[in-house]
Each structure stands twice: as structure tokens, then as C-alpha cells.
Amino acid sequence: MSKLSTANEVTKNMIALNQDDRPLERWREGVSTRMLMSALLGSHQLCIFEQFCDSGLGAPTHRHAVEEMLEVLSGQAEVWVDGTATYVEARQSVLLPAGAWHGFRNAGVEMLHVRATLAAPIFEAQYEDEREAGRRWSATGFPERPTTAAGF
Fold first, then answer.
1. Is 19 helix (H, G, I), strand (E, B) or coil?
2. What is the band of 29 on the pLDDT scale with cuts at 50, 70, 90?
3. Could you tell me the CATH number of the domain that includes residue 90?
4. 10 in a domain, yes or no?
5. What's CA 17's distance to the chain center, in Å?
6. By the 8 A CB rule, do 34 and 115 touch?
7. Residue 40 contacts by C-beta under 8 Å, 6 or more apart in sequence?
8. Cα–Cα separations (whole angstroms), residue 24 to 49, 76, 98
9. Cα three-residue angle 111-117-120, rounded to 5 degrees
10. Across all residues in the chain, what is the average pLDDT?
11. Contact partners, residue 128, CB within 8 Å, separation at least 6
12. How many structural domains compose the chain?
């Protein structure tokens, strides 16, 4: 059995990535995102990314056409779905139903580090606040910022 080198490797049956090699992109002020797996990287079923959020910041209310699991890796998050909020700490996760309006923010003072997994290889989000541009990571670019929100 071989060990994954520090470089990314692609074989016929497996894509192995060094997560630290993935770029950290500024999502919005105080929020950075690292795409770990998506259609851009060869996925057919999943989109997985990390976010790093300053105190009080996170993702505004939005929805996806697919389920999402949000895991807190460090820090504390306030997560809301369809108007109900809860606090989630490190090593806890929340399953968010497809189509449900949800969001989160860093509820602590230290950096919030979360990992999100969506049941689709392309990230699409529609925001409750129409002034917020929809976002889409797809095989054509990283990231696309469509002029209209993603449809459901």
C-alpha cells in the first residue's frame, strides 16, 4: 500500500487531494472558503468545503436544492433553519434539509471553522436577501457569480 504524497494524485478509480494545497478564497468580509471537493475536482456526487469565519460572521440565510451537513470543527456556531436556531460546538453537526432556509454565524470570539458537505458536486445557493448575489461553483469556473439566484 502506498502513502499519499504531498502532491495531489489522480488515478482511474480515485482522486486523492492534499487539502492544504487547496486555495483559500475570500467569500465575503471576514469569511474565507476552501473548496475540498466538487465537480471542478472530479466529484460526481458531493461538494465539500471548509469555511473560516470571524466573530459574528458566517453565512446569511440561504437555501440549496440538496441536503447539507454542516460540521463545526472548532469554535461555536449559531445555526438556524426555517426560523429555529441552535448552538453547535466543535465535533457537532447539523443536517439541513433540501430547500430549507438556513444560515449560521460565529457565536464565539475565536475563529469558527466549519466543514459543509452538499449532496451535489456543484455548489449552488439562493439567498433570502436578494441583494446577496447567488453563488455557484461548477465545472466552468471557480467561483461563478451568476446575475440571478439559483433556481429550485
1. helix
2. very high
3. 2.60.120.10
4. no
5. 17
6. no
7. 137, 138, 139, 142
8. 10, 21, 26
9. 145
10. 83
11. 60, 61, 62, 63, 101
12. 1
Which has the higher per-residue pLDDT, 152 or 28? Answer: 28
Q: How many C-beta neighbours within 10 Å does residue 129 have?
A: 8
Domain hosting 135: range is: 23-144
Q: CA 75, CA 107: separation in Å to the nearest integer?
A: 8
Grid coordinates of 49: 468545503
d(CA 17, CA 62): 29
Task: Indicate the pTM of the whole model.
Answer: 0.81
Q: Match 440538496 to its residue by C-alpha cell.
A: 66
Q: DSSP for 44-101?
A: SS-EEEEEEE-TT-EEEEEE-SS-EEEEEEESEEEEEETTEEEEEETTEEEEE-TT--
Handedness of CA 9, 24, 93, 150 (dihedral sign): negative
In this predicted model, what pLDDT tens digit does every residue of 32-42 receive, in sequence order?
Answer: 999 998 888 88
Cα gap 135→137, rounded to integer Å: 7
How do strand 102-106 and strand 31-37 relate by DSSP bridges? unpaired
